[in-house]
Protein backbone atom coordinates (compact mmCIF):
# COMPACT_ATOMS: atom_id res chain seq x y z
CA UNK A 1 0.00 0.00 0.00
CA UNK A 2 1.33 3.43 -0.89
CA UNK A 3 2.34 5.79 1.91
CA UNK A 4 -0.02 8.43 0.49
CA UNK A 5 -2.97 6.03 0.82
CA UNK A 6 -2.02 5.11 4.40
CA UNK A 7 -1.72 8.77 5.42
CA UNK A 8 -5.05 9.60 3.75
CA UNK A 9 -6.83 6.78 5.58
CA UNK A 10 -5.32 7.76 8.93
CA UNK A 11 -6.39 11.36 8.42
CA UNK A 12 -9.96 10.40 7.47
CA UNK A 13 -10.23 8.05 10.47
CA UNK A 14 -8.93 10.68 12.88
CA UNK A 15 -11.41 13.26 11.51
CA UNK A 16 -14.25 10.77 11.96
CA UNK A 17 -13.23 10.21 15.57
CA UNK A 18 -13.22 13.97 16.20
CA UNK A 19 -16.66 14.45 14.64
CA UNK A 20 -18.23 11.40 16.31
CA UNK A 21 -16.76 12.52 19.64
CA UNK A 22 -18.38 15.93 19.20
CA UNK A 23 -21.80 14.33 18.71
CA UNK A 24 -21.63 12.66 22.14
CA UNK A 25 -23.11 14.61 25.01
CA UNK A 26 -20.66 15.63 27.72
CA UNK A 27 -22.31 14.90 31.08
CA UNK A 28 -21.21 16.13 34.50
CA UNK A 29 -23.07 15.98 37.78
CA UNK A 30 -22.74 16.53 41.49
CA UNK A 31 -25.00 15.90 44.46
CA UNK A 32 -25.20 16.19 48.22
CA UNK A 33 -24.11 12.75 49.46
CA UNK A 34 -25.69 13.37 52.87
CA UNK A 35 -29.19 13.49 51.35
CA UNK A 36 -31.40 10.39 51.21
CA UNK A 37 -32.93 10.78 47.75
CA UNK A 38 -35.44 7.98 48.36
CA UNK A 39 -37.34 10.35 50.70
CA UNK A 40 -38.53 12.42 47.73
CA UNK A 41 -41.87 11.23 46.38
CA UNK A 42 -43.09 14.35 44.53
CA UNK A 43 -41.53 17.16 42.53
CA UNK A 44 -42.52 20.47 40.94
CA UNK A 45 -41.02 22.42 38.07
CA UNK A 46 -39.85 25.91 39.01
CA UNK A 47 -40.06 27.09 35.41
CA UNK A 48 -37.61 28.19 32.77
CA UNK A 49 -35.07 31.00 32.80
CA UNK A 50 -36.36 34.31 31.44
CA UNK A 51 -34.77 34.26 27.99
CA UNK A 52 -35.57 30.61 27.17
CA UNK A 53 -38.20 31.64 24.62
CA UNK A 54 -35.43 33.18 22.51
CA UNK A 55 -33.28 30.03 22.77
CA UNK A 56 -35.86 27.25 22.44
CA UNK A 57 -38.99 26.73 20.44
CA UNK A 58 -42.15 25.74 22.27
CA UNK A 59 -41.74 22.26 20.73
CA UNK A 60 -38.25 21.80 22.18
CA UNK A 61 -39.32 23.10 25.61
CA UNK A 62 -42.16 20.56 25.61
CA UNK A 63 -39.81 17.78 24.46
CA UNK A 64 -37.42 18.58 27.31
CA UNK A 65 -40.11 18.78 29.97
CA UNK A 66 -41.80 15.60 28.75
CA UNK A 67 -38.46 13.79 28.76
CA UNK A 68 -37.74 14.86 32.34
CA UNK A 69 -41.30 13.93 33.41
CA UNK A 70 -40.75 10.47 31.97
CA UNK A 71 -37.38 10.08 33.71
CA UNK A 72 -38.72 11.23 37.10
CA UNK A 73 -41.77 8.98 36.70
CA UNK A 74 -39.39 6.05 36.09
CA UNK A 75 -37.89 6.89 39.50
CA UNK A 76 -41.36 6.80 41.16
CA UNK A 77 -41.63 10.57 41.55
CA UNK A 78 -44.99 12.24 41.00
CA UNK A 79 -45.33 15.67 39.38
CA UNK A 80 -47.27 18.30 41.32
CA UNK A 81 -48.11 21.76 39.99
CA UNK A 82 -46.71 23.30 43.20
CA UNK A 83 -45.32 22.18 46.51
CA UNK A 84 -43.47 19.00 45.59
CA UNK A 85 -40.88 17.52 47.97
CA UNK A 86 -38.27 18.52 45.40
CA UNK A 87 -38.23 21.53 43.08
CA UNK A 88 -36.64 21.23 39.63
CA UNK A 89 -35.31 24.05 37.49
CA UNK A 90 -33.99 23.89 33.94
CA UNK A 91 -31.54 26.32 32.35
CA UNK A 92 -30.35 26.46 28.77
CA UNK A 93 -27.24 28.17 27.42
CA UNK A 94 -26.26 28.27 23.75
CA UNK A 95 -22.79 29.11 22.43
CA UNK A 96 -21.97 29.81 18.81
CA UNK A 97 -18.71 28.15 17.80
CA UNK A 98 -16.58 27.87 14.68
CA UNK A 99 -14.44 24.90 13.79
CA UNK A 100 -11.69 24.72 11.20
CA UNK A 101 -10.39 21.77 9.23
CA UNK A 102 -7.47 21.68 6.84
CA UNK A 103 -6.17 18.89 4.65
CA UNK A 104 -3.08 18.97 2.47
CA UNK A 105 -2.84 16.62 -0.48
CA UNK A 106 0.65 15.97 -1.85
CA UNK A 107 1.11 14.81 -5.44
CA UNK A 108 4.55 13.79 -6.61
CA UNK A 109 5.67 13.65 -10.17
CA UNK A 110 8.34 11.63 -11.87
CA UNK A 111 11.90 11.91 -10.74
CA UNK A 112 15.30 10.36 -11.20
CA UNK A 113 18.13 9.23 -9.03
CA UNK A 114 18.83 6.41 -6.64
CA UNK A 115 17.13 5.82 -3.29
CA UNK A 116 18.09 8.51 -0.80
CA UNK A 117 18.95 11.21 -3.34
CA UNK A 118 17.70 12.54 -6.63
CA UNK A 119 15.27 15.07 -8.05
CA UNK A 120 11.50 15.00 -8.31
CA UNK A 121 8.74 17.46 -8.95
CA UNK A 122 5.51 17.64 -7.07
CA UNK A 123 2.59 19.80 -6.08
CA UNK A 124 0.43 20.17 -3.04
CA UNK A 125 -3.00 21.62 -2.43
CA UNK A 126 -4.53 22.51 0.89
CA UNK A 127 -8.25 22.47 1.47
CA UNK A 128 -9.29 24.77 4.31
CA UNK A 129 -12.81 24.80 5.67
CA UNK A 130 -14.61 26.69 8.43
CA UNK A 131 -18.04 25.80 9.69
CA UNK A 132 -20.28 27.27 12.35
CA UNK A 133 -22.27 25.27 14.86
CA UNK A 134 -23.98 25.71 18.19
CA UNK A 135 -23.29 23.98 21.47
CA UNK A 136 -26.17 23.77 23.90
CA UNK A 137 -25.73 23.38 27.64
CA UNK A 138 -28.65 22.07 29.68
CA UNK A 139 -28.48 22.47 33.46
CA UNK A 140 -30.83 20.53 35.74
CA UNK A 141 -30.96 21.77 39.34
CA UNK A 142 -32.93 19.87 42.01
CA UNK A 143 -33.68 21.58 45.32
CA UNK A 144 -35.03 20.30 48.60
CA UNK A 145 -38.26 22.31 48.98
CA UNK A 146 -38.24 22.48 52.80
CA UNK A 147 -34.56 23.32 53.24
CA UNK A 148 -34.28 25.44 50.08
CA UNK A 149 -30.91 23.92 49.20
CA UNK A 150 -29.42 22.42 46.08
CA UNK A 151 -29.27 18.63 46.32
CA UNK A 152 -28.43 17.59 42.74
CA UNK A 153 -27.07 19.28 39.64
CA UNK A 154 -26.65 17.67 36.25
CA UNK A 155 -25.11 19.37 33.22
CA UNK A 156 -25.29 18.10 29.65
CA UNK A 157 -23.37 19.79 26.84
CA UNK A 158 -23.85 18.77 23.22
CA UNK A 159 -23.72 20.07 19.68
CA UNK A 160 -27.26 21.15 18.80
CA UNK A 161 -29.00 19.07 16.16
CA UNK A 162 -29.88 21.53 13.40
CA UNK A 163 -32.63 19.35 11.96
CA UNK A 164 -35.69 19.95 14.21
CA UNK A 165 -37.31 16.65 13.22
CA UNK A 166 -34.35 14.72 14.67
CA UNK A 167 -34.61 16.52 18.00
CA UNK A 168 -37.67 14.44 18.80
CA UNK A 169 -35.31 11.47 19.20
CA UNK A 170 -32.13 13.18 20.39
CA UNK A 171 -33.65 15.20 23.25
CA UNK A 172 -35.10 12.20 25.16
CA UNK A 173 -31.81 10.32 24.69
CA UNK A 174 -29.79 13.26 26.03
CA UNK A 175 -32.12 13.65 29.04
CA UNK A 176 -31.96 9.90 29.78
CA UNK A 177 -28.17 10.01 29.67
CA UNK A 178 -28.14 12.98 32.07
CA UNK A 179 -30.60 11.29 34.45
CA UNK A 180 -28.36 8.21 34.71
CA UNK A 181 -26.25 10.40 37.02
CA UNK A 182 -29.23 11.04 39.32
CA UNK A 183 -28.70 9.20 42.66
CA UNK A 184 -31.89 7.11 42.31
CA UNK A 185 -31.91 4.63 39.43
CA UNK A 186 -34.91 4.20 37.17
CA UNK A 187 -37.23 1.34 38.13
CA UNK A 188 -37.22 -1.33 35.47
CA UNK A 189 -40.64 -2.63 34.52
Describe the structure.
- The protein has 189 residues and is an alpha/beta fold.
- The protein has a domain at 23-100 and 133-179: Double Stranded RNA Binding Domain (2-Layer Sandwich), CATH 3.30.160.
- It is 30% helix and 42% strand.
- The chain has four helices and six strands; from the N terminus they run αββααββββα.
- Strands 1-6-5-4-2-3 form a six-stranded mixed beta sheet.
- Helix 3 runs parallel beside helix 4.
- The longest helix has 21 residues, at 3-23.
- It is elongated and about 85 Å long.
Defining key terms:
Double Stranded RNA Binding Domain, 6 strands, elongated, 4 helices, 189 residues, 42% strand, 6-stranded mixed beta sheet, disordered N terminus
Amino acid sequence: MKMKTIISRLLVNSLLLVFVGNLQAQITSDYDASVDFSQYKTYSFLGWQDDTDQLLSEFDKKRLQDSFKSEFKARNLTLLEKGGDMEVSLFIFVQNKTDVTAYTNYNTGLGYGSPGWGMSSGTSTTTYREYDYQVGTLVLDCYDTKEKKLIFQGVSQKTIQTNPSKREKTIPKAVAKLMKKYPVAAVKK
